[in-house]
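[SOLVED] Need 3D model of a two-part complex

Original post:
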Amino acid sequence: DIQMTQSPSTLSASVGDRVTITCRASQSISSWLAWYQQTPGKAPKLLIYKASSLDSGVPSRFSGSGSGTEFTLAISSLQPDDFATYYCQQYNSYPYTFGQGTKLEIK
Amino acid sequence: EVQLVESGGGLVQPGGSLRLSCAASRFSTFSSYEMNWVRQAPGKGLEWVSYISAGGSNIYYADSVKGRFTISRDNANNSLYLQMNSLRAEDTAVYYCARCVAVPATECYYGMDVWGQGTTVTVSS
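Solution:
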């Protein structure tokens, strides 16, 4: 199975900050990586697919990059709604696997 | 707006069974979409559970549920199912159904783009 490791596990930031979250795969997954946002009690929401493609309706302050084994999610100017938990997920091969999550907290 | 609604969760004793359902509405054609089950244990991260292709011919499971859970779909009734047998305490979680869109030769090309609100399964005596 492909292991997905996110860092950091927790991130403290302020409104307006730019933040980045890293996701590493235990083997190459090409660009078959998605990023999801989840707020407490809600279902995950797709932000980015194929490593860098923004899902429909997702604000342009979100961006994704990377290929192979190292990927990054960046949020350019944090808004209050962005404080949530973020997960990466590989869909290169089964079983699909998620990172452990990064909780983005208000500083 | 497309919608997925899960049902069938509840409290069950270890060793028991449950059948989860996921009803799709406002889909242009449910039978065109691949579907997944994903779960989240209390306070934990997301865990992919199972996948079924649009026509039902390709099915995959996580090792943690293989041999105990069965995914199926009824395209005529826009529904997805998860039959869960031999349930264990570690199966306690919120279970989400999630849609994928395939393109030729590539499953889930766009990731899991539509999710239900989840149904809670508690396995306890």
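Edit: The first strand of chain A starts at residue 4 and ends at 7.
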